[in-house]
Amino acid sequence: MPRLTRRLVKSAKPPTSGYVLIWDDQVRGFGLRVHSSGVRSFIVQYRDKYGAGHRMTIGRWGSINVETARKEAIRVFEDLRASLRDDNKLHPLAERRARIDAPTVGDLLDRYVMNHVEQRNRGTTADEVKRLIERHIRPRLGGHKVASVTRHDIAKLHHALGDTPRQANFVLAVCSKAFNLAEVWSLRPEGSNPCAKLERYRENARERFLSAEELGRLGDTLRRAVTEGLPWRVNGAKSSSKHLPKPEKRRTLYSRVTTAAIELLLFTGCRLSEVLNLRWDRVDLHAGIITLGETKSGRPQTVIINSPARPLLELLRATASPWVLPSNSDPKRPLSKTAIEGAWQRIRSDCGLEDVRLHDLRHTVGTYAGQSGANAFMVRDLLRHRDLAVTGRYVNRADDPVRALSDEVGARIAAGLAGRRGADVIPLKSTGGVSP
């Protein structure tokens, strides 16, 4: 058998059909396969611990040279000898096939969504996790093998989203959970999560709430929205188009349900999803409470119906729908998040509150409650924060003080919306609770 050299490889003649093998005389089991097509590939041939023969391609000539192929063949035979000594180690070809068949990050994400996100996360959280996966994680990491992802790979993804710190941190949290589950499912070694020790971006906390003057502007806009309508926003270049209605007719009239959704957010301090998903079977006007079945805390919670919220709910009660806030197009369905957010964009622009999000209405309730003199525990009760169980033993948990606080805050917000001076702060009387 000749020694494989560059000249020999280049001069080897292809057979008329099939292939021929030329073996190296220096490294036993290392050879060259020449196909009738002219393709030349370096191979190794060996037997495993059970005597079964295997032939594995190292690489195609042109992509690697003879000496590189010979060194790789030597490494393969070293791995073979290691597998013969260790019953738990695969022989080289089996190990290569295992790597090829190993699950990708895309496979992991599919399993993560099916077995965890859809089973354990709330609807809104699950939707956001899926959005981040499809928009950011899968395009960058989906084709990687789960076992080969490194901390550097995750750091690059996190850094690429640095312009949006909160989203970048959420993506990192999703990746961390997915790779934790990869360890549980034996797809990676224990303690190998590539997200470990990566520093999160600093997120700027928002402290936005509406002042009494801003509430007055919002209230005026809400009243005009359902009576005369809000003016269109027309591009200056197209404002004189002959197809446009006359200026006095360029107005959009909003339904009472749409403006009521905004008012309910202010009066109750509820989250947007809690208001939009509210059904009448959860509202007890006689007892003055709303029972939320699905909340961020994952357990039923009670909301006080304060004095300003009661007439609003009684007005909405006239609609023939199981939903407190039915869709404008189909009463059998709830008002959609897209619809209310689209309306809010126009409403907040009209009253000069472009930086105010719908969630800031909840911040307004909490801020007014704090300014009224209520202690921190009562404010937590009003907003139904998750850590209430920790603080419950320090205060009276009867709903009377919370109802009084809810009425106080609701009255102040209603006065603000109406443009009255009643939006000034009036401290609560002592309720006998223990202040922090």
What would your notes on this structure say?
This protein is 46% helix and 9% strand. It has helices at residues 6-11, 66-85, 92-101, 105-120, 123-141, 151-160, 165-184, 212-227, 256-268, 272-276, 309-316, 337-350, 359-371, 376-383, 388-391, 399-417, and strands at residues 19-23, 30-35, 40-47, 53-60, 230-231, 251-252, 283-284, 289-292, 301-304. Strand 8 (289-292) and strand 9 form a beta hairpin. The chain has a 4-stranded antiparallel beta sheet with strand order 1-2-3-4. Mean pLDDT is 85; it is low at 388-398 and 425-436. It has 3 domains: 6-101, 2-Layer Sandwich (Double Stranded RNA Binding Domain); 105-184; 212-423, hpI Integrase, Chain A (Orthogonal Bundle). With 436 residues, the protein is α+β, with helices and mostly antiparallel strands.
Keywords summarizing the entry:
436 residues, 46% helix, 16 helices, hpI Integrase, Chain A, alpha+beta, disordered C terminus, 4-stranded antiparallel beta sheet, Double Stranded RNA Binding Domain, 3-stranded antiparallel beta sheet, 3 domains
Radius of gyration: 34 Å
Tell me the span between the first and last alpha carbons: 90 Å
The SSE string, one letter per element, is HEEEEHHHHHHHEEHHEEEHHHHHH
Helical segment count: 16
The average pLDDT value, as a whole number, equals 85
How many beta-strand segments? 9
Question: Structural class given helices, strands, pairing?
Answer: alpha+beta
Strand count, sense and closure of the main sheet?
4 strands, antiparallel
Strand order of the largest sheet: 1-2-3-4
Instruction: Examine the coordinates and then state which fold CATH places here, giving the name of the CATH topology of the largest domain.
Output: hpI Integrase, Chain A
**CATH architecture title of the largest domain:** Orthogonal Bundle
Number of domains: 3
CATH superfamily of the largest domain: Intergrase catalytic core
